[in-house]
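Supplementary Methods S3. Complex input for the adenosine monophosphate-bound model.
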Amino acid sequence: RSDDTAIVMGSERLTYEQLEQRSNQLARLLIDCGVDRGDRVCLVQPKAPAAIVSMLATLKAGAVYVPVDVASPVARVEKIVTAAAPRLLLGSSDASQLLAQMDIDAGLVSVAGVLDGAQSGPRDADGYDTAALPTITQPSDPAHILFTSGSTGAPKGVVITHAMVDAFLDWALPYFGHRAGDRISGHPPLHFDLSTFDIYGSLSSGAELHLVPGNVLLPGQLAAFIRDSRLTQWFSVSSTFAYMTRGDAVAQGDFPSLERIIWCGEVLHPTVLAYWMRRLPHCSYTNLYGPTEATIASSYYDVAAVPEDETAAIPIGRPCAGEEIRVLDEALAPVLPEEIGELYIEGAGLSPGYWRDEEKTRAAFVTDPGTGRRLYRTGDLGRRDEQGILHFVGRADSQIKSRGYRIELGEIETTLATVAGVAETAIVAVPSGGFDGTVICAAWVSRPTAELDPKRLRASLAEALPTYMLPTRWLQLPELPKNANGKIDRPALREKFTPGSGDD
Ligand code: AMP
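Predicted complex, serialized as structure tokens:
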């Protein structure tokens, strides 16, 4: 119903009718600003109902939105905006400081403030017609581009089409039974792939989307949010569950309205899952697995009972309808059940590739020599057991997850290598111990006269990389350990970073 609540954040609330009308008005303003089918619109705004209005308006104008992480340093935001080559930026006053610092192509039009009543000026959308616009996009058109860490130093953009999102929702909505009375969490930032499910899963079911405000951070605050918003679904990266468990934030029988607990993006430690399942026996528990390149998730596994063996990893399950996951060897031949191979994804969820990067696209999206079908090479190692259930066993490369963020260690390494005075550097990740994931460690060799210390190096890196990519352990070495081929001996380096040995 049009007066049902669509989005809630703090004291802000938008009904379905308001969301429809505001996004129609803004779409017309975008078209007036010259936005055409296929153009990119960068959203330089924090998570808020206005950002969702911006997304819908961009799609209604036939264009492609690019959500930007406003917490990133200006240099990285500029890289992303420049790569996206947008027709315009859609900002809000909360991001005005960042917008003011940005040095972008003169051809771009900034409409900062367009969504804020207080700042409404000539570019205010209020005066535009609220009626629906004709659809001008095709399912195969890009809907949004999500930039993720790139191993060669620059973030890479994953193109997500309308059809990819539809394919996931076609499976997920009936599977989870989304309905109009649902109250769904919006916890991840809007440049995270997971948020796509929150937004479109909720809005296409007539449910309420409850965006978690940026100041709701501590375990107890997150628990209070779930409780007070009477959420029926909580979907988040695994590290949020671990964080809330460490803070012992969940009481026995807590969150009585909560029905579904879903996680994705990282390994969830069974000890953490057991904590939640014991306290909240009234909820269902589903592990979703998948990369951004196949939007949101490609496989699922429902956990029916509290894990008895808390050392046995939780399976990633079976492919979602419309997707297939292959376990292949280096020659792209299937491996036997129980054997470890690399996971390749096939089907309706696959991205057309990386934004304006044919080389990376060719390397990651390959053709199955047997079937001629397109496959995405995930870089994940896994096995399929005798029952046909998939298990994730790790990475084949140096991509890691830290607090839900996908990080290519190569991006940190390339950036650190450009800091003046650094002769050589290597970044490795080591397990943090417990169930908290990984710690990023930096080893460096100084040039003879350079006066460098971890504090300075960290400060230099912070100008180019977001906080979650900054190493927390540092080690200066006279030279990096090398193997017989002259390559950096990363296993040897990881040993030097055993917990507690660095300058945390
Ligand atoms: P992203 O593109 O940020 O969604 O990251 C995708 C990567 O996260 C995958 O290739 C896996 O390495 C990891 N990942 C995603 N879901 C899971 C899961 N349920 N369990 C373990 N790792 C996961």
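Residues 148, 193, 264-267, 287-292, 316, 378, 380, 392, 395, 401, 406 surround adenosine monophosphate (CB under 6 Å). DSSP finds 13 helices and 25 strands in the chain.
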